[in-house]
Each structure stands twice: as C-alpha cells, then as structure tokens.
Amino acid sequence: MGISEENITDVVIGTLNSENARLNDVMSCLVRHLHAFIREVEPTDEEWISGIEFLTRVGQKCDTVRQEYILLSDTLGVTALKDCIANRKPEGVTEVAVLGPFYRDGAQLLPLGSNISRGTADGEECLVRGRVMTAAGKPVAGALIDVWQAADNGLYEQQDESQPEMNLRGCFLSDEDGFYSFRTVKPKYYPIPGDGPVGEMLSAVGRHNYRPAHIHFIVSAEGFEPVVTQIYDRQDPYIDSDAVFGVKESLVKDFHRIEDAGLARDFGVSLGAWFLEYDFVLNDAG
Ligand code: BEZ
Ligand code: FE
C-alpha cells in the first residue's frame, strides 16, 4: 500500500489500460525511462522547475512556421536516431538525412539542366548531376527529384524577404538513362535558428548552431521507397560537427571545379564553375 521511491514506477505503469496495445507499450517505456532519468539525475526542485520552464518556452516559440520541438529533437540527435531506425536500408542504397523545417511542397517541375537560383546574383555557380539507379545497378527513368537549399546568405527563401518566392527549389524527372542535372549556387554552411530556447540550450552546453553546406533532396519513383536526404560538402568547416547530426559518410562528397570546356558548354555553366556528382540508389518498395 502507498507510494514509495521504490514502487512508483510499477504503480504508474500499472495504471495504463488502453485498448491500444502499442500506446500502452510506448507509455510504459516512456514512464520507465523518465523515472530512470530522475533517479539518476536526482534534480532539485529548482532544477525541475527550470526544466519545466524550458519546455514551456519551447512550446511558446512554436507557430505555423517555427517548430521549436523539432529543432530540440534535431539538436539532441533524436531525429537522426529515429531516422536511422525507421529507414534501415540495405548496403549501397542512398541513406536518409533529416528533412528539416524548410521543405516546401509544390516546387515547380523544371526541365533538366535548369537553374534553381532565380535571379539572385550572389553565390558561386554550381552544376549538380548524376543518375538515379536501382540497387541492382539499373537506371530509374522518370524518378522525381525534389531539391531545395539555402542561399549564399545562409537563409532559405521563406526566411528571407529579399529572395524570390520558391528560390532555390525545383523538381526534376530523371531521363530514360536515369540522368538528372540542374544548376544552382554552391551551398554554404549556415546557422539553424538560434533565437529561441534551443539556441539558449546550445550556448549553455558550449555548442554552436551551424550546419555544414548541403543540398536537400527527396527522390521518389514508382516501385521504390522514397528517400529524404542531403548531400554534404566534404571541405566544409562544420562537416564533423553538424548541429543536427545529419551527416553520414556516404552522403559526404567533393565539389570539383569544372575544367572541361565541353562539359561547361553542354551544361551552360562557366569554365571553373563548381560541379557535384551524385548517384542516388533507391531501394525496391517492399
Ligand atoms: C535543414 O537542413 O534545413 C535543417 C535541419 C534541421 C534543423 C534545421 C534546419
Ligand atoms: Fe538545410
């Protein structure tokens, strides 16, 4: 009878009585882990209240465009871990990386080779090219490649009134041999939003809020699992310290200078422009 430090975890779990077995399992696991955390940390009353106040500020920072809870999950590596577990893929298949908060549905379908940088002069010219392939090495024709990235100033278009609507976004269809290509500006590292409680938490624990330069992709095709991913610049100063733990070795690539005049001419870029080549490998839908 009665609650004690020893029995409270079992008592709380014993109250779970949903007809939904998965809900009971998840809640029971949550209670066990929260109680284990409290037993290990032994927070004082002041520490517990300051934790509650932090979570309250996280909620208050959320609105229709800002999702501070996802940012919290991202910066604690929870999103990246969840993505690894929920998207286990066979060796050789393109790995996933966090979606992030800046994806927008409805980017325009553009002809292969189009420039997704709409009229902003800043940034270094870059050609991105590659193929979409099956795990067995066959080309995937008609795959949809949905691309987005931040501008040279480190901001996505919806964060920045100076950029045209849907700047640096576009959709492409791979050709009959699986090839895709587009022009853009070379991505740069940028800070994730630091003006909220997550920013406070990062400074408090001595962390920065930068992501290494990357381009986001969602690649999908009939009969295959869609992949949400990012390709990263190997030379980026933050490549080994991404604030949201999205970098996987297989997604880190070299940007090269185009030194072949024929290639530059064929793709409508200047000699010396940057060039990124990446082949997506899709997993068959189960
Ligand atoms: C992004 O890469 O767009 C991103 C990912 C997670 C948090 C913030 C931004
Ligand atoms: Fe990003």
From TrEMBL:
Which Gene Ontology molecular-function terms are recorded? catechol 1,2-dioxygenase activity; ferric iron binding
Protein's name in the database: 6-chlorohydroxyquinol-1,2-dioxygenase
Q: Name one Pfam family in it.
A: Dioxygenase_C
* Keyword RNA-binding attributed: no
Record-linked CDD domains: 1_2-HQD
Q: Which cofactor does it need?
A: Fe(3+)
Q: What does the UniProt keyword field contain?
A: Dioxygenase, Iron, Metal-binding, Oxidoreductase
The question of whether ATP-binding is a record keyword is answered with: no
Q: Which InterPro entries match?
A: 1_2-HQD/HQD, Catechol_dOase_N, Intradiol_dOase_C, Intradiol_dOase_core, Intradiol_RC_Dioxygenase
GO BP term, example: catechol-containing compound metabolic process
**Family under the similarity heading:** Belongs to the intradiol ring-cleavage dioxygenase family.
**Ranges where the Intradiol ring-cleavage dioxygenases domain occurs:** 128-156
Q: What organism is recorded for this protein?
A: Marinobacterium nitratireducens
